[in-house]
Amino acid sequence: MVLPRPAAGQQRPPSEEQHRAGKDLAARIDRLIARAEEIDDLAARALKRVHGGDSHNFGHVQYSSLDEAEAERAVELAKLGPDMSDAQYREFNGLVGANAEDPEFSTVFYKGLGGPEEAPRFYARMSLDGTLGDGEGDEERLALSRDLQRNMGIALATAAAPDNKTHLPAGWGEEFRRLGTRQLELEPGPFGPQPYGYQVLGGLVRYGDYDADFLTPIAEHITQLHHDEPMRFTSNRPAGMGDADLGYNPSGKGGAGYDPLTSVLEALGHSPEAAERFFTGDPVVHREDGTVDKGAELGYQYFDEFLGEDFEWPPDTLAKPGTAGSEDVLEHGPNALGHPLEAAATGRAYDSQSTEPVKHTSERAEFTERLVAHFGEHPELIRHNENLKDEKFEDLKSGPLHVLRDSLGNITAEYIGDFQRSMYGDSPASDGFPVNGVPAVFENTSHVVSFLGEVGQDPDAYAAITSAQQSYTTLMVDKVFDGVFSGEDKSEVSLEQKVSSAVAPGAVMAGIMSDARADAVHDYNTAAVKDFNEAAGDKGKWAIRTVELGTSLLPERVPVVGEVINWLAEDITESVVKSAEKDVTDVKENGRRDYVLTREAATEAAKEAVLRASAKHSDLNDETIEDIQNTVATQVGNSHTEGVGMRSSGDAS
Fold it and tell me: pTM for the whole thing?
């Protein structure tokens, strides 16, 4: 029986996304009102300074702009250091946070702090002030230091960008590298903390999109120092501290801030151009003091350095082994590594919420090809296994890089058209699988299957890939219908066969994902069914990104714009969530897996795609639509089984 067609123009209740948008708007209005009050106070203070207390004599102080007055006030507060009251601290964060992306303010502010050594020194003192102690009375101060970290990081990225009309001199970057291996005296006397420059700078650069000319040399220098002496910086951690959070990374994400390698990887994850240059450009050798050794060759590539099995990740914590805070310490580095890999491959910050399509350059596409080949050939690097009590798994220990699978899943979702094309070996020259920019070509299908099968065991990666796959398949079905009924498609192959061909690659991927999910739940014990279902509901951005990608490539064939895009993405997201809830593999007494429910989930999703595409073509009757749906369901079932078989041939089970 054919599913009912959606009613045209049907009114819907506000979605969760619309509710969130309303709350965000209210919060934004509140922030604007607070900001206006800040500006009023600042203007009054500036006028008072201008006339110096003499209402008849202006000219004591001159300001060329409000930015300059605000920066001066921020510097004035910064000079108080940890002596700032909470109220003054909030004012400071308000000034820097509101102007962090303003080049004039950020440049004047950083210059006002005193230079490349004084700015990190101020940040270090405030960071230690915020992370000292772990009682309830310290929560406000910690929250303020976290805001300071984010605000100062974004402001530094803005001030260091040479394309801005107002910016810091290039010498600041060179000076930061020189200070990277030197210890900074934060307080007078021999017993005060003396962190290395890179430990402090690392906390700052964790936030902000940095110019490649500024950040990439810093990342290279830190990496080369680590290569020569992996524990160089973490050996400087204070000993005997009971406070595991004390350090230069108030965010608490990915370590306490004593390992600048993890910090600079996070910085690269927010800076796509710098990440791309770091991983795909020619390495530049740096001396101990950060200057360039023009005649030297590095002898290794950063890709091979980081993605090898034996890379040594320093433990970035003050927590003692076996105590709270030490459980996942060796995962901080690999998790951070996934972020610049994602930024370099996709051209967007790893945590970007933007849904605007980003063109794939040849460098990005080739980098993605290399990642898939590397992990496809060495899946043990990203394997996660928590079921080692079973003898059959004793040789299948978790790989050192398994925590970056969520990033690899996002990369897969970004290149979903290329992955679908690879399922049946279609030519990159074909327009059957549109992509945004240069196509990525995966030469070895077995590597692709191995890659997907391992990455898909992570709930977040599974959700991102499944969301993108189902969205892309929906667009391909729309493409077939619109091509046939517009007369652009001149092929004499039947509509049923064309639609079947459109859904087959996605169904193969769905089969691979189903088997990967079953591995995680039944074999490796790394996730529960609810983990996959919950993750599916959180990946709606991939449906939106894929739909917007399709409409930007096929504006005539897929005429959906504006709010309709969001509704289509919401429909697909709902379908993905329903599919995920039904993607449950039953394990029989003999150990064999039953994929009946997972196939049903895949076929229902394909039927919905057909129904959605046919709604725009009123000349199709219900009987014809039902026949197309049944034909497509048969193809999806067969292709899904094929995907399961491709993946399960390499299963541990």
Answer: 0.88
